[in-house]
Design brief:
Histone, subunit A; 52% helix
């Protein structure tokens, strides 16, 4: 017997969370986060996490689940979400995966190459090597050690060439070899009902703009101020992923006096619209039919 799992994807500010609540009410659902920023604690308002009123209605999982200093890749998220889905199904409830991080969602729908986790000390060592050698020399060395992966990238593709080096360093095998391995997919009896919420562009952009204004009116500046204090106190790393969340760079600049409040709002709204546009393109092209997917529906 197949086990039904809802997956709701789409760009930021598209209305995914509201749609998830509708399904949860209808199907005794548990809402599970698939957003790479909402998984972190520290910026609840600015990452548009569900308000307390929504949290009180139905169970919500994997929101504010990690400290900002923790790393969370698509693979890490999948390791957390698969047993959680299994638990929800065993309880006779309906899992509802909702979020805008396409890599997270695809890791669940289609699986991942079985690449082992890279130890923190290896990551630190490789990053230190990159900083010492510089981009060109680092890339030249990667060409010598792993020509297959180097051929796929340019010296300016910093994150990608570092990733290739990390995998080679940690496993002794090229990332290309790992990617050729069969994907480790979801259980055969899981059936995904996928809904992509993709509003018309003008509507989506208006929602992006108005939602950031709402955030500003409901404590976003104070929230980023407290986050800055935690960074200065050494409690949060200044280069953690959450510092790149939509609106954070602009508001940090405002708090430091580098930009006006009005400019910060415009910058954040522009960043949000550009990100939403990229998300739309990604979901339209990367979510495709698969043996575990019952249907893919698009809601505008």
């Amino acid at each position: 017997m197949t086990k039904k799992i809802h997956v709701i994807g789409g760009p930021t500010a598209s209305g995914k969370s509201a749609f998830a609540l509708e399904i949860a009410e209808r199907e005794n659902g548990v809402i599970i986060n698939a957003d790479s920023m909402q998984i972190y604690d520290g910026l609840h308002m600015l990452t548009a996490q569900p308000p307390a009123s929504d949290l009180a209605l139905f169970p919500h999982k994997l929101y504010s689940a990690l400290h900002p200093n923790e790393d969370c890749s698509a693979g890490n998220w999948r390791e957390m979400v698969e047993p959680l889905i299994g638990q929800v199904l065993e309880e006779g409830k309906t899992p509802i995966i909702v979020g805008g991080s396409g890599l997270y969602i695809n890791s669940l729908l289609y699986g991942l190459s079985p690449i082992p986790d890279i130890a923190d000390e290896v990551r630190a060592r490789v990053n230190a090597t990159y900083a010492e050698m510089g981009a060109e020399a680092f890339y030249a060395e990667l060409q010598a050690r792993d020509p297959v992966m180097a051929e796929r990238f340019h010296a300016n593709h910093k994150a990608r060439i570092i990733r290739a080096w990390e995998v080679l360093e940690a496993t002794g095998k090229s990332l290309a070899e790992w990617q050729d391995e069969p994907l480790s997919g979801p259980p055969d009896d899981w059936e995904f009902d996928v809904k992509l919420i993709i509003p018309e562009r003008e509507t989506l952009y208006e929602r992006c703009n108005s939602r950031f204004v709402y955030m500003m009116e409901h404590g976003a500046v104070e929230e980023v101020g407290a986050f800055e204090e935690a960074i200065r106190a050494g409690e949060i790393k200044d280069n953690c992923l959450l510092t790149k969340a939509l609106g954070v760079p602009a508001l940090r600049g405002y708090l430091k006096g580098d930009v006006t409040k009005e400019d910060a709002i415009r910058m954040a709204q522009g960043q949000t619209r550009k990100y939403a546009k990229r998300q739309v393109t990604w979901f339209r092209n990367q979510v495709v039919e698969n043996k575990n997917i019952a249907q893919i529906g698009v809601i505008v």
